[in-house]
Amino acid sequence: MKKISFGRNQYSQLILGTVQLGMNYGISNAMGQPNRNQGIGIIHQALDLGVNTFDTAREYGTAEDILAAAKGENEEQRALYVFTKFRINPEHEADLEKSWKEALEIVRKSLQVLNCKKVSGVLFHRSPLNDLEKFSKILPEIIRRLKENKLIEYGGLSAHYPGDILYALDEADLEIIQVPCNLFDHRFLRLVPAKLKDKLIVARSVFLQGLFFLNPDKLSGAMEVAREPLIRLREIARHYDRTIAQLAVAFVRDQPQVDCLVIGALTPDQIIENINLVNQSAVSKRVCEEIKNSFSEMDQFIITPALWPQDKLL
To answer: Distance between the two ends of the chain, CA-based, in angstroms?
Structure first.
């Protein structure tokens, strides 16, 4: 597994997303949440195959607890890096001390559950309800305080909108930036045309929460708007003799701006599949350009899972 150097650390290019281990997640997930032992087994499989970085959050159900259990059973004590997140009540976002108290409580709870004194990264989990312009005035100070209290190594931002990254670029204390980026969502790529120095860029929503794997002819209700783009995606995959999963991972991985990819798994076998996807050969420039041209103007509903009807989220 390729490692990405950042500061003193070597993060795996594939970061295991743990939301699926702590709760039901994903529009195409018919398997449901793995049980505790299965979740631990998935994390052990990832460690065995060289994945050393894990993405989690307090709001991911039991994900942090399962990660802690797996970490505790890590007999060889292999390097294991954790990125977790905190949210801020929109009512507090203009008040430094209230926001600091809320963030500190969440981070301390995460450390308690994870059974560690410090995590590699903590990201502000920006919600569509947060006014980032307002909160941006105090977020760097919260990150600095977390560092001064030796609770985190790096701070960052988990962006809701790709445009959020433009704020993070100028903030030295926001070293890790997580953004949505996939075959249908190129907004981040248009905003940041080159590799960023002193920032670790982590792409999430690589499979668009599993939307790419749905049968376009079986979509119903509001989700029917995704039918034609999904049909077009299948045409491109067939033409270039690639699977949808291969296209999805290679397209994001090969963008020069992207350092790491967050991808979840529901079984140990999926860890192997995901590693193979990350290690696959590059797609040609021609394929990337066809994808960008085919999906350059996407309906915001399609690329914003928060807008999807909850009864469609399996």
So the answer is: 31
pLDDT tens digits along 210-253: 999 999 999 999 999 999 999 999 999 999 999 999 999 999 99
Task: Give the residue numbers spanning the domain of 234.
Answer: 3-312
Q: Which residues of the chain have pLDDT under 70?
A: 24-31, 74-78, 310-314
Number of domains comprising the chain: 1
For 117, residues 6+ apart whose C-beta sits below 8 A from its C-beta are 111, 150, 151
Q: Do residues 92 and 65 lie in contact, with contact meaning Cβ atoms separated by under 8 Å?
A: no
Contact 94, 132 (CB under 8 A): no
Contact 96, 138 (CB under 8 A): yes
Residue 221's Cβ-count burial label (10 Å; 0-12, 13-18, 19+) is exposed
What does the pLDDT look like over 131-173, one tens digit per residue?
998 999 999 999 999 999 999 999 999 998 888 888 898 899 9
CATH number at residue 255: 3.20.20.100
